[in-house]
Design brief:
The protein has strands spanning about 1-5, 10, 15, 20, 65-80, 85-105, 110-125, 135-140, 140-150, 160-170, 185-190, 200-210, 210-215, 215-220, 220-230, 235-250, 260-270, 275-285, 290-294. The protein is about 0% helix and about 60% strand. It is mainly beta and about 290 residues long. A hairpin with a 3-residue loop joins β6 and β7 (about 110-125). Strands 3, 5, 6, 7, 8, 9, 10, 11, 12, 15, 16, 17 and 18 form a 13-stranded mixed sheet that branches. Strands 1-2 form a two-stranded antiparallel sheet. A two-stranded antiparallel sheet has the order 4-19. The protein contains no helices and 19 strands.
Length: about 290
Amino acid sequence: LVYFMHRRFHAGKRILLAILLLLLGEKETLAMPAGYDFLSLKPATDGGNYFSLWGAKNIRKKDFVFGNYFYYSSNPLQLLRSGARLRGVVDQLFMQEFHASYGIIDRWLSAGVNVPVAWSLDFLDPNVALPASDKKTAFGDIRLHLKTELMDMKDREWGIALIPFLTIPTGSGDLFLGSKSLTGGGLLALEFEPNQKVSMVLNAGVELAPNFQIRNANKNTQLMAGIGGRVNLSPAIAAVAELISSGRISGLYQEEVESPLETRGGLKWGIPNTGLTASLGGGAGIIRGSGAPT
């Protein structure tokens, strides 16, 4: 990632290696509706301490963050039957996301945007019985967000922030990179920092989305939750771990396919005297619900 923050060039590179697996049920028909965003990785773009979890601290007025990150995913979308692979839908994916945030009012308001681009996607049409792999380049859904501190961490060990967001249907629904409709919601971020070496964060929120069905997976308005921690191993290097979950509110956690649980972790290195930060991490699914990596 490349960050510009507080008049300081703050850069980093995130290579998040994940194999995303979508459980699609028992039926043998390959027909699937367009308009599904299978990408489960939604990185936080606030220049904070974590990968996909938001911290409680906001950027200051007239400060800005600019960045991009790149990741590769092998077999992120597959057709399965009884847990066995029938064939792939997306076999290889090289993704890059560009983002920027700007501080409007100290503490109270910042605004940002995230633009995902799939540079290379090996796509096999699920509506064709024996499709040939076709390389595609496409956009994902653009994500807009605001962020405000409800409780700052200036004079206390903990803080709370609110992050409302809106997604614009710029992604290719036919390639399962976009919802083909406006979605939106909000997150609360609670962060606890007892000392300069350790911090912990909790995110919880809701994403409002129209109902659609993929085999035996029904997806609509989602509850999103995550917990994470950061430990500074040295003045320059920190270890980060996250646990992420989501589930359909109507029937919360009743079906495994609709209730993915995944973990992510890695290292962040603040390169001394440069303002640069490099990050390397990976992820895996614990409950292999739709969109969870394996």
